[in-house]
C-alpha cells in the first residue's frame, strides 16, 4: 500500500478509501470535492491509519496484531518478521513461483547521509 501511495502520489493522486484488498485513489484536482462531501476528510490520508482502520474479511493473511507489530517494531525487526510471515505464507499457499522482495526506502523529505 505504501509503495502504491508513493507511486500514485507522485502522479497527483491521493489515497481515498481502502476495503480489504481494494484501494481507491482520487486525482488531487478533485480532492476538494471529496472533502466537501465527507465531514472530517482531509487529504492526504495516511496509508497506515487507513489500513489499520479497514475492516478485513476472513480468511485473514495477516492479523491486525501483526500489522501493528510491523508498524511499531524497529525497522530491522519488522523486516525480519515480515519476511518470515510472507515466506511461511508462500509455502502454505503455494506461492513459490511468485517472487517478492522487501526493501527499505527513505521517508519523504529526508536525505541519505553520505559517508566520507
Number of strands: 2
Output mean pLDDT. 77
Task: Characterize the biggest β-sheet.
Answer: 2 strands, antiparallel
- List the helices and strands in order: HEEHHHH
Report the helical percentage: 40-55%
Descriptive overview:
Residues 111-116 have low confidence and may be disordered. With 116 residues, the protein is of the alpha+beta class. Helix 4 runs antiparallel to helix 5 (75-92). The chain has a two-stranded antiparallel ribbon. It has helices at residues 2-9, 31-37, 47-52, 64-72, 75-92; strands at 13-19, 22-27. It contains 5 helices and 2 strands.
Q: SSE layout and pairings?
A:
Elements: H1 2-9, E1 13-19, E2 22-27, H2 31-37, H3 47-52, H4 64-72, H5 75-92
Helix pairs in contact: 4-5
Compact description:
The chain has helices spanning 2-9, 31-37, 47-52, 64-72, 75-92; strands spanning 13-19, 22-27. It is an alpha+beta fold and 116 residues long. A hairpin with a 2-residue loop joins strand 1 (13-19) and strand 2.
Descriptors for this entry?
116 residues, alpha+beta, disordered C terminus
Amino acid at each position: 500500500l505504501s509503495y502504491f501511495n508513493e507511486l500514485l502520489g507522485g502522479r497527483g493522486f491521493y489515497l481515498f478509501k481502502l476495503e480489504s484488498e481494494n484501494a481507491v485513489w482520487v486525482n488531487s484536482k478533485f480532492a476538494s470535492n471529496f472533502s466537501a462531501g465527507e465531514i472530517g476528510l482531509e487529504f492526504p490520508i495516511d496509508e497506515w491509519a487507513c489500513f489499520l482502520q479497514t475492516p478485513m474479511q476472513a480468511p485473514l493473511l495477516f492479523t491486525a496484531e501483526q500489522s501493528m507489530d510491523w508498524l511499531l517494531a524497529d525497522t530491522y525487526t519488522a523486516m525480519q518478521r515480515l519476511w518470515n510471515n510472507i515466506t511461511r505464507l508462500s509455502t502454505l499457499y503455494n506461492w513459490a513461483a511468485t517472487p517478492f522482495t522487501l526493501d527499505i526506502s527513505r521517508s519523504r523529505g529526508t536525505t541519505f547521509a553520505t559517508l566520507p
